[in-house]
Design brief:
Helix 1 packs parallel to helix 4. Strand 3 and strand 4 form a beta hairpin. It is globular, with a radius of gyration of 18 Å. The chain folds into two domains: 85 residues, no CATH class; 49 residues, no CATH class. With 134 residues, it is mainly α. The protein is 51% helix and 12% strand. The protein contains five helices and four strands. A two-stranded parallel sheet has the order 1-2. A two-stranded antiparallel sheet has the order 3-4. Bound molecules: zinc ion. Zinc ion (ZN) binds next to loops. The site of zinc ion has 8 residues, from loops.
Amino acid sequence: KLERKIKLINRTLTNIRVNHTHQVTTEIVKTKPSKIVIETLRVTNMLKNKHLSKAISEQSFYRFISFIEYKCKLYGIELERVPTLYPSSKKCSHCGAIKKDLKLSDRIYHCECCGLTIDRDYNASLNLANYKIS
Ligand SMILES: [Zn+2]
């Protein structure tokens, strides 16, 4: 009886996550961007990181990417994939310098070369947006 209850709770959680991923990906494509650029993340490598694995598998990166893929096709949005080794986080979006000692806990990106101080994820998103240009 308890096993059935646990299964039901897990199914409910999965449904909530799938629904949330649908809502977020729909919200993104409905902003009608000319293109969406995503990193080709090596999820299997990231799952080996004890601290990240639970959060990553629960957020279901694969599901997110597959939803984004088919919704881009549906809405005629270009989807560009950036190779895994592209240093989107470590690169300064202003001068192009590479910060080799960037830790995951560093939430603010500070460039020693040009002095740029910017949110880490925003810096990475600028680098991804300008991927073809650089
Ligand atoms: Zn810089």
